[in-house]
Amino acid sequence: MSTPGRSCPLSYRHGADALRDAATLDAGVAWVVGGLYGNLEALAALQARVDADAQAGLDTRLVLNGDFHWFDATPADFAALERGVATHTTLAGNVEAELGAPAADAGCGCAYPSWIDDATVACSNAIMARLQATVAALPGCRGRLAALPRLLRLRVAGHTLGVVHGDPDSLAGWGLAVESLAVHGGPTDGERVRAWARAAGVDGFACSHTCVAWAAAPGGVPVINNGAGGMPNFRGRGHGLATRIAPPTAAAPDALYALEWRGLRLEAVPVAYDADAWRAPLRAHLAAGVAGAALLRRAHRPRPGLHPADARPSGRLDAGQAVASSRRRARAPSASRCSGSRAHTSGALPARGSAGNSSRQAPPLRSDRKLRLVPARP
Questions:
Q1: What is the tens place of the pLDDT at every residue in 254-313?
Q2: What is residue 77's DSSP assignment?
Q3: DSSP summary character for residue 18
Q4: Cβ atoms within 10 A of the Cβ of 302, count?
Q5: What is the pLDDT confidence band of residue 177, given thresholds at 50, 70 and 90?
Q6: Residue 323 — very low, low, confident or very high, per pLDDT cuts 50/70/90?
């Protein structure tokens, strides 16, 4: 029996080879941002960054990689965000999929794995129900959301990246969640990522969906997850996070960390938005009686446990060392029901600096000698 919020429709499962038929977008510089979550202030901040790149003479594109709606539950906010994203490339996440064509028993469509607590799932389902009521009152909106593409081929500096919301197999897949990586006892090892890249005909991947940022090259394939563009990602930092893909000669001066691979730079750049203005729609949710105040507070408070150093690659990859990535204390006994991946039983993921992580390095991954590691900013 499916549980709303923990499973997804079969229509979400596209397979990595579907990327071969996806549209291709060429760019000199590309911003790829999943998880805007209805944050109009973050969208304005992103627009300013894109405009600045364009004024510097760069051929710049912004890709909204799904879940750009969420906390914009009033008709006015929802319509404003629709207008704001209309001039950019927009892909559906599970949020847009469930707004455009709601599936029975899908709930929010997040396909949350077992390490996500039930209270978060219930809150997400409640927010989705309110959003669906908003969309029903906006003529033509449901049809536009239902028609959004879910995959994109992004070509920058002669390389092609597959842009996916969840993982290469599924719109709401968790195969590229940091908890699913083999270094944390999960099923996603270097060979699996290489197999996805071969099936998709791409050099690497840009993803989102999981709200935990990381960047690494399992199996020598560059992968970057921007976490959330419209919510805080790291301890002591109240900004969102965007993926920016460019030649190394066009690096962003404020990037927190980056991968450089064969003349391509994949970097994590802060999205500095007006946090006070962002709190207004969150208060509207609380006033409307949406359950799960803790999840709403998470939307504007810096995350307590993660630091940019947790998300960046570390060690000498040319010596076969493992890449470091974000770690959080959580149970991870099984994969998402939407990923199609095999189950794994890893027990608790040790917190950074805990006894379970202090005495040994994570197991090695094969890596690419042409990958350069760029340290995190303090």
A1: 999 999 999 999 999 999 999 888 877 677 666 666 544 555 555 555 555 688 888 864
A2: H
A3: G
A4: 16
A5: very high
A6: very low
In this prediction, residue 345 carries a pLDDT of: 26
Specify the DSSP class assigned to residue 167. Answer: B
- Distance from chain centroid for Cα 368: 23
Token pair for 378? 């303090």
Residue 57 DSSP one-character state: T
Torsion sign over Cα 222, 228, 229, 232: negative
pLDDT digits (tens, 9 = 90+) for 100-147: 999 988 999 999 999 888 988 988 998 899 899 999 999 999 999 999
Rounded Cα distance, 128 and 156, in Å: 35
- 49-71 burial: b if 16+ Cβ within 10 Å, else e: bbeebeeeebebbbbbbbbbbbb
Task: Give the contacts of 300 (CB within 8 A, at least 6 positions apart).
Answer: 231, 232, 238, 275, 278, 279, 282
List beta partners, residue 207: 225
CA distances from 267 to 119, 195, 215, 222, 374 (A): 33, 24, 8, 11, 9
**Strand-strand pairing, 159-164 and 214-216:** unpaired
Token pair 């969640």 in the structure block, residue: 177
Cβ pair 23, 233 in contact under 8 A: no
Amino acid (one-letter) located at 373: L
Rounded Cα gap, residues 19 and 162, in angstroms: 7
Q: Answer for the pair 47, 81: CB distance below 8 angstroms, yes or no.
A: no
Sheet containing 151-156: give its strands across. Answer: 24-26, 151-156, 159-164, 204-207, 223-225, 214-216
Integer Cα distance of 352 and 355 in angstroms: 9
Length of the chain in residues, anyone? 378
pTM of the model: 0.85
Bridge partners, 30 (sequence order):
61, 245
DSSP state letters, 185-239: T-SB-HHHHHHHHHHHT-SEEEE-SSS--EEE-GGG--EEE---SSS--BTTB--
Alpha carbon separation from 142 to 54, 80, 85, 280, 365 (Å, rounded): 32, 15, 15, 25, 43
